[in-house]
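Practice problem 4.
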């Protein structure tokens, strides 16, 4: 049966219960040359999930938890455990090592933990590890990520039509590649229908801080932005948009209930098919470590349009979506950065690997270092 272990709801409870003894950071160990390949029955297997936030956040972690729920529905006898709000610190290493000690056949981290998870994977060659937004593949460690830049571009087309001022405001977490990709893609989509569109970005140094997100949203509206978007795990700035009568697009899940009049769409995530596929492979003894991009319509997409989005805007944006699904790449040059320098020459397109590592802001944008 599915197992919810009270001792493992949070890092704090783990430490308080004495379940995790202080462990020195292990030295880099060379993984074995064999992958986890022994077939397992669901009733005798344990899969552990490590989350960066609370499953109740309504955003990123909630989207992953929906995938976990789908796994439980697919295999009612599979044992599953999870820990919420794992910090980016040595505590992460302790928790991942605890998963291994619990007997996990597979460990799935729903955020990028770098060496904190890789060190554990290297020391446990018979356990399969997956890291969301990871960048390493070893004998028993793979990664996966969503190509959210396409959904962001589609929503950007709608933003370019809906914004009367042409000023978009973006609430960001940190100046990291996923944020650059999301902000840039949205702005480029807007500029495809309104070449004068601009974007101001405010980073709040958190994925989940409703107060800071609200303050950033209000500041952007005060500066003249009439379309808010971002990459937050909560609906705070949508509430601001509703109060201030401007448009807003969200991330992770359908959040329209928090601002039905302002809601345009959301970059929505669906990890369920991928989790089911990967766990099925592990149970069958045929899992292989690799990097996986979950594409448009297969893990990530735009949400159903908000009630007040005009039909003409929906149709125009969805025509772009159809072109992307048919193979068209909207990230084709010339694309300039904020200094006017051409970064992507005419006729050259950015690959998913390049978009995944985006580290510069496009012309018309401001606020990302």
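Answer key:
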């Amino acid at each position: 049966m599915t197992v919810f272990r009270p001792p493992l709801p949070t890092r704090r409870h783990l430490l308080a219960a004495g379940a995790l003894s202080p462990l020195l950071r292990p030295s880099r160990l060379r993984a074995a040359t064999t992958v986890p390949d022994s077939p397992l029955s669901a009733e005798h297997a344990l899969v552990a999930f490590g989350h960066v936030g609370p499953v109740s956040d309504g955003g990123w972690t909630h989207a992953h938890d929906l995938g976990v729920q789908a796994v439980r529905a697919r295999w009612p006898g599979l044992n599953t455990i999870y820990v919420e709000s794992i910090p980016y610190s040595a505590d992460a290493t302790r928790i991942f090592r605890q998963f291994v000690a619990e007997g996990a056949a597979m460990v799935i981290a729903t955020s990028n933990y770098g060496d904190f998870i890789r060190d554990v994977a290297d020391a446990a060659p018979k356990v399969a590890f997956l890291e969301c937004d990871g960048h390493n593949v070893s004998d028993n460690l793979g990664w996966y990520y969503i190509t959210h830049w396409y959904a962001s571009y589609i929503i950007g087309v709608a933003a370019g039509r809906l914004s009367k001022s042409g000023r978009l405001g973006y609430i960001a977490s940190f100046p990291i590649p996923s944020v650059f990709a999301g902000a840039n893609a949205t702005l480029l989509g807007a500029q495809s229908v309104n070449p004068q569109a601009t974007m101001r970005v405010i980073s709040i140094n958190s994925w989940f801080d409703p107060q800071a997100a609200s303050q950033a949203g209000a500041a952007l509206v005060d500066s003249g932005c009439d379309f808010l978007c971002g990459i937050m795990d909560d609906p705070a700035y949508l509430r601001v948009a509703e109060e201030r009568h401007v448009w807003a697009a969200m991330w992770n899940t359908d959040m329209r209930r928090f601002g039905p009049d302002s809601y345009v769409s959301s970059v929505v995530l669906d990890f369920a098919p991928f989790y089911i596929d990967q766990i099925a492979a592990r149970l069958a003894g045929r899992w292989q470590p690799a990097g996986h991009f979950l594409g448009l319509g297969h893990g990530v997409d735009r949400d159903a349009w908000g009630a007040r989005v005009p039909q003409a805007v929906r149709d125009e944006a969805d025509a772009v979506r159809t072109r992307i699904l048919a193979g068209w790449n909207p990230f084709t040059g010339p694309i300039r950065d904020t200094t006017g320098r051409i970064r992507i020459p005419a006729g050259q397109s950015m690959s998913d690997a390049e978009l995944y590592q985006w580290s510069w802001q496009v012309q018309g944008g401001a606020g990302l270092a």
